[in-house]
Design goal:
Layout (H helix, E strand, L loop, with lengths): L33 H24 L5 H15 L2 E7 L14 E4 L16 E5 L5 H9 L3 E5 L8 H7 L3 E3 L7 H13 L3 E4 L20 H6 L3 E9 L17 H10 L3 E7 L9 H13 L14 E4 L2 E4 L31
Parallel strand pairs: 1-8, 3-6, 3-7, 4-5, 4-6
Antiparallel strand pairs: 1-2, 7-8, 9-10
Helix pairs in contact: 1-2, 2-3
Length: 347
């Protein structure tokens, strides 16, 4: 059993990813008062309403800095601090020096080259919730592959349009080649595109398998891939699942939970860049190993990772931590029943 989650189900087709994560996965966390929640919500609304105007009047060469600044402020209005860990520590083929290190809060601009400069980059990470987009954009602006109806979401919909989101209808398998082609065209044009290859959201302690389809865009264009390990920590530095957009969550219920949280940190870990190679499945395996913080296994080596079977999806055993530090267990609260489940970008 994984955090009291029900078995995974697939309602459209066998390829369609599904997650067994649900309300039982969600942690309790320190909360702020109603006045602080209202102030945060006002800040979010102000940023999202002013961004289109600011983006239109500022010179094109300065828009990337503006967009990153807005994303960073938005993350702060959601009650989160940004922490960036650069594990690349190498010089890539474009001559960009990555010295490594840890960057907190307003020093995000000190991260060498962000996700990369001088050409297209495919950014891949696990998918926890809609806040993932804000956290990644706080490091460096990029486009995303996102669920098609995201443009209808309150507040975030307009932002999705400005970020030139590539829509995906995950229920329609026949549209997938067109999405891959759109990603390839954007990469070939030198853009940074973020994708969530798990195809759906997970709580952050259990994980899905990275599907190889979207990696084909990097293979076709010879574009480097930047694996990113993203997680959320509470004020004590313990991984928490509050931003998880799972189960019966709606956007409103998820936003309410995030806005009430106190002291959360969005930690973005930049792992070594992967060359695309010629096999999208092998590339997906390498990136999954990097995102999970484990060494990529040899083809002839026995698999040592413990997995829990969950319907159509393998779930990593949450009792096996990928970090050396001890994960402190806390009592979990069960949120009240919510409406029909929403999903985050690119489920």
């Amino acid at each position: 059993m994984v955090f009291d989650a029900p078995p995974a189900t697939s309602t459209a087709h066998a390829w369609m990813p599904s997650s067994p994560c649900g309300p039982g996965c969600l942690d309790s966390i320190d909360e702020v008062g109603s006045a602080r929640v209202i102030a945060r919500l006002a800040g979010v609304a102000g940023l999202l309403l002013s961004f289109p105007v600011a983006n239109a009047v500022i010179p094109r060469g300065r828009r990337a800095s503006l967009q990153r600044g807005y994303a960073h402020l938005l993350l702060g209005c959601l009650g989160m601090r940004l922490r960036i860990v650069d594990n690349r520590g190498a010089v890539d083929e474009r001559g960009v020096v990555d010295e490594g290190g840890v960057v907190d809060e307003g020093d995000a601009a000190l991260v060498p080259a962000g996700f990369g400069t001088g050409g297209g980059v495919l950014v891949v990470t696990g998918h926890i919730g809609w806040t993932d987009i804000v956290a990644l954009a706080s490091v460096q602006p990029l486009g995303f592959v996102a669920r098609a109806d995201m443009v209808d979401w309150p507040l975030l919909g307009k932002l999705a349009e400005l970020m030139r989101v590539i829509p995906i209808e995950r229920e329609s398998l026949r549209q997938l080649p067109g999405v891959v082609a759109a990603v390839a065209a954007r990469l070939a044009a030198g853009e940074r595109i973020g994708v969530f290859p798990e195809g759906t959201t997970w709580c952050g302690r259990a994980y899905g398998i990275m599907r190889p389809a979207l990696f084909q865009a990097a293979v076709d264009t010879g574009t480097p891939v930047q694996p990113v390990r993203l997680r959320y920590l509470d004020r004590h530095g313990v991984p928490c699942t509050v931003p998880g957009f799972v189960g019966v969550d709606t956007f409103v219920s998820s936003a309410r939970r995030v806005l009430r949280s106190r002291g959360m940190v969005a930690e973005v870990v930049l792992e070594p860049v992967q060359r695309p190679g010629t096999d999208r499945r092998e590339l997906a395996r390498r990136c999954e190993a990097a995102v999970r913080g484990v060494a990529s296994p040899r083809q002839d080596a026995p698999e040592t990772t413990k997995w829990i079977e969950a319907g159509h999806t393998r779930v990593r055993d949450p009792s096996v931590s990928v970090d050396a530090v001890e994960v402190v267990r806390r009592p979990r609260s069960r949120p009240a029943s919510r409406g029909r489940r929403g999903t985050a970008a690119a489920r």
